[in-house]
Amino acid sequence: xxxxxxxxxxxxxxxxxxxxxxxxxxxxxxxxxxxxxxxxxxxxxxxxxxxxxxxxxxxxxxxxxxxxxxxxxxxxxxxxxxxxxxxxxxxxxxxxxxxxxxxxxxxxxxxxxxxxxxxxxxxxxxxxxxxxxxxxxxxxxxxxxxxxxxxxxxxxxxxxxxxxxxxxxxxxxxxxxxxxxxxxxxxxxxxxxxxxxxxxxxxxxxxxxxxxxxxxxxx
Length: 219
Fold this sequence. Notes:
Layout: E1 16-20, E2 28-33, H1 40-49, E3 55-60, H2 82-99, E4 107-112, H3 114-125, E5 132-136, E6 157-163, H4 171-183, E7 187-193, H5 202-217
Parallel strand pairs: 2-3, 2-4, 4-5, 5-6, 6-7
Antiparallel strand pairs: 1-3
């Protein structure tokens, strides 16, 4: 999905689940993307754990609970139209926040697993200043990453957290993803956790909480 080109795919028309501060009263927003087989409501529960007053939570739901069918390491075309439709779902959620008067630089993306891959991909393909990205157990999508991702993230804080032995996310792709975001002028923090399974740990939640607090404090 490129800017200005609307996608109408399997995830359009799905519910956008909300939580946190009511959007009309919020000064910042989280857009949360769930993992394969999971739900938007589950991501709202995660948002509740890191909630700050004045921050709305918006979680798009994937059709059949899956953003795209194959591994994120497959050639991109093998995950269409799900990938592009998922990127459109993130874009639509950001638009909801913008329409409520919340600027994109106060919108933070949080994703887990397949949702972390999708959120990472959105940031790389739509570069500008965001409130942040927390990609938990994920990385940029594709068999090979592009040689160059043009655009400037203008110091957007990015957190990449993953196990060093994740069965779905190779450690090398986490390093590659960090390098891409650094080349795009993001403020990248990368943490690999020894022997952790495919999940979210307390240290990651503490980092995300801090990022959300910064989002609501930075007025």
